[in-house]
Amino acid sequence: MGSATGIVSAQGKQPLLSFGIISDVQYADIPDGHSFLGVPRYYRHSILVLQRAVQKWNKMQKLKFAINFGDIVDGFCPKDQSLNAVEKIVHEFEIFRHGSVYHMIGNHCLYSLPRDRLLPLLRIPSVDSRAYYDFSPIPEYRFVVLDGYDISAIGWPQDHPKTIEALKCLGERNPNSDKNSPTGLVGLERRFLMFNGAVGKDQLEWLDGVLQDAINSNQKVVICCHLPLDPGASSPAALLWNYDEVMDVIHRYNCVKVCLAGHDHKGGYSIDSHGLHHRVLEAALECPPGTDSFGYVDVFDDRLLLFGTDRMKSTEMIFTS
Ligand SMILES: Nc1ccn([C@@H]2O[C@H](COP(=O)(O)OP(=O)(O)OC[C@H](O)CO)[C@@H](O)[C@H]2O)c(=O)n1
Fold first, then answer.
1. 264 lines ligand 1 (CB under 6 A)
2. What is the reported pLDDT for 10?
3. Is residue 225 part of a domain?
4. DSSP annotation string for 79-122
5. Strands 17-22 and 65-68
6. 203 Cβ neighbours under 8 A, 6+ residues apart
7. Which of 48, 52, 132, 162 is deepest in the core (most CB within 10 A)?
8. Which atom belonging to ligand 1 lies closest to the Cα atom of 182?
9. Residue 183 sits in which domain range?
């Protein structure tokens, strides 16, 4: 059966579960502006996009949970308003009535508040300010939320070993004094920017263990990360620093079917060399007034169907065997 979104339903089958998605709300109570590269940003309107998303998710009644792909508040939010702005957005998510909202951290979250203050507000289960976790809403599926700012020059105290490791990496890979500038970096090397980060060694080992466990439990896995993991779905400047190391771990197991991300606001989609689907979600922040970018995903045993609203494109992700 065809649909208005242009994607085809799974032969009339009922999904195993459905969940809501939104990314890069980047709310701030400040006038409209633009990105460093001149793309318009609608800081006050983005909360309306989120409100319409939650309204729609509530009306649908069938969603079991929602995932926010990070950057809930913009770094331009005046510092004395950051806490208030984060709480305001978390409150909007809490209006979702049908289950939990799973958050992840983005660079703009960390410009607004340090990790130790942010994680409890976002209800991210955490030991030692780690922000990676997994959950299994039904026995057949596991969702893994990665912390792309595990090794990062933002969010940790300045003298923290993870800040030092991140600054060392940036020092070796980016010759500019402004480490947010990609000037002179070529191709995939353009990812070595301060507004990106990496998955650390402990997290990689944890991921390996979770995927082994998913295989043992006969579960399919969806990976979620603020930072994209595949160059085919993203600009080089938005990729996780060590996307290749993370994908090497993921490719060792055939349980991972889809990787979802935010951060690269224009969105993207690819199927990688191992047949995994990578979908980068279009940002709520870049919706001109009256337009939207959010969606929901129907989960089947052999595919994920993303139904996007307005600027978020619908995507059919059928698993390769
Ligand atoms: N060439 C650049 C680009 C950015 N900056 C500064 O870095 C900070 C973060 O940039 P921003 O575009 O706001 O980051 P987002 O997470 O919203 O978007 C990610 C990108 O789209 C990925 O491609 C900010 O302070 C910029 O001004 C910079 O100095 N130089």
1. yes
2. 65
3. yes
4. GGGHHHHHHHHHHHHHT--SS-EEE---HHHHHHS-HHHHHHHT
5. parallel
6. 130, 132, 146, 147, 150
7. 132
8. 1
9. 17-318
Comparing CA positions, the residue from 313, 278, 270, 279 lying closest to residue 295 is 313
61 within 8 A of 26, measured Cβ to Cβ: no
108 touches ligand 1 (CB under 6 Å): yes
Closest to 197 in 3D by CA, of 220, 165, 223, 231: 165
d(CA 117, CA 193): 24
Look at residue 4 and tell me whether its pLDDT is greater than 60.
no
Strand partners, 74: none
Q: What is the CATH number of the domain that holds 245?
A: 3.60.21.10
Task: Indicate which residue's Cα is closest to atom 14 of ligand 1.
Answer: 195
189 within some domain: yes
Pair of tokens at residue 272 = 């990688």
**Probe target for ligand 1 pocket from 195, 227, 285, 286, with the most ligand atoms within 8 Å of CB:** 195
* Closest approach atom of ligand 1 to CA 108: 16
Per-residue model confidence as pLDDT tens digits over 226-283 = 999 999 999 999 999 999 999 999 999 999 999 999 999 999 999 999 999 999 999 9
- For residue 235 and ligand 1, the question of a CB distance below 6 A is answered with yes
Q: Which amino acid is at 245?
A: E
Choose one of 26, 27, 34, 36 to mutate for the ligand 1 pocket test, by most ligand atoms within 8 angstroms of C-beta: 36
Q: What is the DSSP letter of 70?
A: S
Q: What is the pLDDT of residues 115-137, one digit of tens each?
A: 999 999 999 989 899 999 999 99
ipTM beyond cut 0.85? yes
Which token pair is 37? 């590269």
Question: Pick from 207, 228, 238, 208: which is nearest to 278 by CA?
Answer: 228
The one-letter amino acid code at 301 reads D
In a domain, 207, yes or no: yes
Atom of ligand 1 nearest to the CA of 183: 1
Answer whether residue 12 is part of any domain: no
